[in-house]
Amino acid sequence: MSPMSKEPADLVQALRAAGIRDERLLEAVRTTPRAEFVPASQLAMAYRDVPVAIGQGQVTTQPSLSAMMIESLGLEGREHVLEIGTGLGFQTALLARLAADVVSIEIGPDIARQARDNLARQKVRNVELRVGDGSGGVPDRAPYDAVVVSAAFPEVPAPLIAQVRPSGRLVQPIGPGGHEQVVYFLRTASGLEQRRVLTAARFVQLQGRYGFPQGDRDPL
Predict the structure, then answer these.
(1) pLDDT per residue as tens digits for the range 98-109
(2) Which end of the chain has fewer CB atoms < 10 Å from its terminal CB, N or C?
(3) Residue 112 dihedral angles phi and psi, to the nearest 5°
């Protein structure tokens, strides 16, 4: 993609080139201005297929990677979705346009406040945004039809497994943080079963009670 890319259509083109085929998802990207979900200092990068720094040692997920994770969930519009790691809300907004409702939890209060403002400006109303330890999920709103985890841990935390509805789906980067495989899981009668590896990627660590201790340095 050209460094001068500056329109949502440019990002849609990049996602198509990366193999994204879900037309509902591509339309959500087209109608959700990423420029409204990045810091002012990063506006030039908004419609390029790259992660951007959002402060506090965090970065957004690269749009094509986020789209790949979302596409794997097969959302049809009826789902109750849990998102671990709100960031500044762009992925949250996409999920909200594709599912019935989204519960999203962000560990950083300042980042969560920015995300809430971003979502409100875009009139995204079917999101419940929590501030707290995402490694334990949001049990009072479970079970979920789909869960997307935007941070890495060597295994799926047990509380998240328990919060996935039977036949529900979960996607998470599995690894130490910085060198992962993004894995799609299906909840079956016998538990959470790995179905396929979507791609290799680099993510920040999942921190919290059921993740890495808070304050550990990510290897990024």
Answers:
(1) 999 999 999 999
(2) N
(3) -60, -40
